[in-house]
Amino acid sequence: MTSSEEFDVVVVGAGSAGCALAARLSEDPSLRVLLLEAGGSDDVLEVQVPAALHKVWRTRRDWNYTTEPQPGLGGRRLFWPRGKLLGGSSSINAMIYVRGSSCDYDEWAELTGDPSWSYEHVLPLFRRMEDNARGADRFHGAGGPLRVEDPRSPHTWSRAAVESAVAAGYPRNDDFNGATQEGVGLYQLTQRRGRRWSAADAYLHPAAARPNLTVRTGALTTRVLLSGGRATGVEYRSGGQARTAHAAAEVVLAGGAVNSPQLLMLSGIGPGAHLHEVGLDVVHDLPGVGGGLQDHPLVPVVWHTRSGRSLFRAESPSGYARWFGARRGPLTSNLAEAGLFTRSRPELPEPDLQYHFLPVKFWRQAEVDPDVDAFTAAAVLVRVHSRGSVRLRSADPTWAPAIDAGYLADERDLDALVCGVEKAREIASTGPLAAVLAEEWSPGGTVRSREGLRQAVRETLESLYHPVSSCRMGTGDDAVVDPQLRVHGVDGLRVVDASVMPTLVRGNTNAPTIMIAERAADLITGRTVDPALTGTA
């Protein structure tokens, strides 16, 4: 027996975008909003304690995806953690608040043909959503839902990394989201007083008591219901029962770069030949669904240290005492405390490399706990030329999709990451870091030749967990949604999450994903944002 309910808007996925969108839509008391989340509650200590983020990975609060064997990595499969709980990946990420470069959004405007995606037009949305501890200015907002703070107890090695990069000739930058992105400094974080501040904390929990907002956890959406070329609702499974939720106005998919294209294809929307392969009827042949996948790859450069305590000792009785008491100490760390944006080649117009400096051994995506005190400089490629795809393995919605990240499919990515390793070594041998670090553990000090480094990159490359573009926004044949985030050829259906990004931003993707949700809320409700906005709406 299938139970059925009526709403105005049904939002699928309570991640970064879904939480923000549902909360913003429910500000209009005339809209009945349903938010469906396949996972459960975010009310667990491992979510709240910043340094415990990896303890949520590979648990029932993680979709626990793995890529297909990657030819560019010698056939290795990479683990992709994706949050399966309220807040989605904002409840299990490293909390880094980076928007990307202003040029990224100007490129979005060019690629979509819509100037409202330019940096000038999205900056007020970023300001509206932000509650920056430093206060409001031209680039930042105060009083918005998303708390953004400086690290409370940064490790001495993180400060040493900043000083060493400055000594190596890189400019100091205290605000990667300000006038310029290039340079080195400590990251700002989505935290409030040393505690994670996810999209659920920022948007959903404050809105939970609204009578027009219904939130269902443990609800796996299995397909979008379509009639006469229009989305009319969704089917989902909850408590062992099949249920139906009808949407009088819109269905919005906010499942992220893996789950949104998966759900479209399960609903018969996607590349026709592929849907036939897995035994699905083609309702709407839309070739771009699941294509054009991009992700930020990283290469960890790891050193042993001469003395001192790394963050692998953070979970001590004194560490917990400081966190529970004053919300300070090593457990407030997001692990990747300091960062750098720079160029692999001086002639590039914008940075294509980002660094995460971690006062801990980060290896094999935290599959094994650190065993020694060590320091990691993760060289991340943020201008990616390689492309991958998301495809169905089965018409069964409980099967994980096939993820081909396409790592190093384009040789330019490999060359840039080799430069990234070389620059990490230069920084490590300069300034105060040189006195902290001992021998290089990976790739290893003896690996010096260009070919040796290329091979080391292939053997040690990991994901920074920033998949985007699998439901790309645009107007071409391979675009999935239009600049208003409406699925091409289907009425009443939008996609609102990282999958719609026309291309990867230069930096971490959580803040841009929330901004997309803010934009979507305006598009759905008809609200406009004042370009002169410096605080909240």
Contiguous low-pLDDT stretches (5 residues minimum) are none
Report the span from N to C terminus: 44 Å
Number of helices: 13
DSSP strand count = 25
CATH level 3 topology of the largest domain: FAD/NAD(P)-binding domain
Give the radius of gyration. 22 Å
Helix content: 25-40%
At the fourth level of CATH, the homologous superfamily of the largest domain is: FAD/NAD(P)-binding domain
How does CATH name the architecture of the largest domain? 3-Layer(bba) Sandwich
Whole-number total of structural domains: 2
What overall geometry do the principal axes of the alpha carbons give?
globular
CATH class of the largest domain: Alpha Beta
* Percentage of β-strand residues: 15-25%
Give the integer mean of the pLDDT values. 95
Structural class label? alpha/beta
Major sheet description: 7 strands, mixed
Q: How would you portray this structure in words?
A:
This protein folds into two domains: 1-100 and 206-294 and 389-402 and 469-537, 3-Layer(bba) Sandwich (FAD/NAD(P)-binding domain); 152-186 and 297-383 and 409-460, Cholesterol Oxidase, domain 2. The protein has 537 residues and is of the alpha/beta class. The chain has 13 helices and 25 strands. The chain starts with a strand and ends in a 12-residue tail after the last helix. It is globular and about 70 Å long.
